[in-house]
Amino acid sequence: MQKTDVIVVGGGLVGMAIAYGLACRDMTVRVIDEGDEAFRAARGNFGLVWVQGKGVGKPSYAQWTRNSAALWPMLAKDLFAETGVDVQLQQPGGYQLCLSDDEMVEETRRLHWLSDALGNYPFEELGRAELRKRLPGIGPEVVGACYSPMDGHVNPLKLLYALHAGAQRRGVILSAGRHVTDIVHGSTGFELRTSEERWKSEKLVLAAGLGNRILGSKVGLNIPVRPNRGQILVTERLERFLTAPTTYVRQTDEGTVQLGDSLESVGFNDLSSTSVMGELARRAVSCFPRLASVNVVRAWGALRVLSPDGYPIYQHSPVCPGAFAVTCHSGVTLAAVHARVIAPWIAGSTAPPELSEFSHDRFAAVDLEAAYVH
Predict the structure, then answer these.
(1) Are 14 and 326 within 8 A, CB to CB?
(2) Which domains can be identified in the chain, with CATH numbers?
(3) What are the two backbone dihedrals, phi and then psi, of residue 327, each rounded to the nearest 5 degrees?
(4) Where is each FAD dependent oxidoreductase domain found (predicted)?
(5) Are β-strands 323-327 and 313-316 bridged in parallel, bridged antiparallel, or unpaired?
(6) Which residue, 112, 121, 216, 242, is most buried by CB atoms nearer than 10 A?
(7) Distance, first Cα to last Cα, the chain
(8) Contact 128, 143 (CB under 8 A)
(9) Could you report the per-residue pLDDT of 16-74, keeping only the tens digit for each?
(10) Chain-wide mean pLDDT for the chain?
C-alpha cells in the first residue's frame, strides 16, 4: 500500500488546483477522482475570472476574490511554462449588462456598497450611449452596464487540462474512476477505501464537490452543500465581436460564444431544459442582436456546489487533525488562491486570517437536511 503525504479526493478544478499547489511544495500527492460518473461542476463552468459584485454583505469574500484575480497572471504563466498549455487568461475587465432601469439601480447599489466597504474598488456606471461606444453591437434593450477592470475570463477546459498536466509532471498520482466508500483516521494518518483498494496518507483534502457532505461527516466536518443547476449554450464560431466578457455572454478564444447564467434548484437533475435554454437565448439576443441568426452547436446542464450562504468552506477538522475540506462555487475565479494560498496552508503554513470567515462553524446551528434542499 503506497502512502503519500496527501490524498486529494476530487479531480475537478478545486481539487486539481490544490493538488498542483501541494506538488509545487514538493509534497507527494494522490488524487482520487470518480471520473465521468461524478457530478462534475467543472464541465459546466462559464470560465469567468470575476470580481465585480461578489461579496455584497461579506467584504472578506470580496477581498478573497480580488486576491485570487490578482494572483491569476502568475498561475497562468507557471502553467504555461510547465505544460505549454495556454489557458487563455484575459483580464480586460468585464461588463454586467442591465436590461432594465431596476437592474441598473440594483447593480450600482451593490457596487457602491462594496466600494464603501473595501475602499479602492474600481468600477464605472455606463449609460446606453457610452456602452455602445465600447460594445458597438449592443442591443436596444440594454439600458446600461457596470464595468470593472478587475474582471476577466479563461478557457476552463484548457485550465483543467493544464492543472492535470502540471500536477502529473510534478509527480501527482491520479487514480480515476474510483469511488471512496470509507475513510478511517488513525494515529498514523488516513486510510481511504474503495470497494477494492486502500490508500494511506498523512493528510487528506476533501474537494469532492457535492460529495463533500457525506465524506466530511466521516472526519468530523460539517459541509452542508447543495446542488444548483446551471445551463450553458455554445454557438458556432464567429468573427471576433466581443473583446471583454459579460455575465450573460462571452466569446471564447476559439471564437464560439457561450450563453449562460441560469440558477436552478432542481436537486440532482443535471439535464438541460428547453424552457431555460430558450430564456438564455432570448436574453443573449436582447444583449447582442447579431446572435439571433447563429447556430447553437452544444448545450448542457451541470450542477454547481453551493453552501447555505453561497460562500466557500475552508475547514481543518477539529477531531481528525490533517483532514481538510475545501468547497466553493467559483472554481475558476478562485483557482489561483487555491493553488497559492490554500495549498500552502494545507501543507503546514500559517492559515491566512481571512479563512476564519469561511469555516464550517458558521453553520453550527444549521439543520443539514433543511439546508440540503432540492
Answers:
(1) yes
(2) 6-49+157-223+309-363 (3.50.50.60), 94-147 (no CATH), 226-306 (3.30.9.10)
(3) -145, 145
(4) 5-343
(5) antiparallel
(6) 216
(7) 40
(8) yes
(9) 999 999 999 999 999 999 876 555 555 667 899 999 999 999 999 999 999 999 999 99
(10) 92
Which of 256, 278, 254, 246 is CA-nearest to residue 139? 246
Cell numbers representing residue 152 in the block = 476577466
Return d(Cα 30, Cα 80) in angstroms, integer: 22
Residues near 19 by Cβ (< 8 Å), separated by ≥ 6?
A: 6, 8, 11, 29, 31, 163, 167, 172, 205
CA atoms 49, 55, 56, 59: torsion sign: negative
Per residue, what are the HEC states of the chain? Answer: CCEEEEEEECCCHHHHHHHHHHHCCCCCEEEEECHHHCCCHHHHCCCEECCCCCCCCCHHHHHHHHHHHHHHHHHHHHHHHHHCCCCCCECCCEEEEECCHHHHHHHHHHHHHHHHHHCCCCCEEEEHHHHHHHCCCCCCCCCEEEEECCCEECCHHHHHHHHHHHHHHCCCEEEECCCCCEEEEECCEEEEECCCCEEEEEEEEECCHHHHHHHHHCCCCCCCCEEEEEEEEEECCCCCCCCCCECCEEECCCCCEEECCCCECCCCCCCCCHHHHHHHHHHHHHHCHHHHHCCEEEEEEEEEEECCCCCCEEEECCCCCCEEEEECCCCCCCHHHHHHHHHHHHHCCCCCHHHHHHCHHHHCCCCHHHHCCC
Q: What count of Cα atoms within 13 Å lies in the side-chain half-sphere of residue 241?
A: 15
Q: Can you say how many angstroms the Cα of residue 370 is from the centroid of all Cα atoms in its chain?
A: 24
The residue whose grid cell reads 498523512 is 202
Q: What is the pLDDT of residue 308?
A: 92
The CA distance from 227 to 288, in Å, is: 30
Residues in the chain: 374
d(Cα 204, Cα 4) in Å, to the nearest integer? Answer: 10
What pLDDT digit, counting tens, does each position of 217-267 carry?
Answer: 999 999 999 998 888 999 999 999 999 999 999 999 999 999 987 777 777
- Residue 266 is placed in which grid cell? 432542481
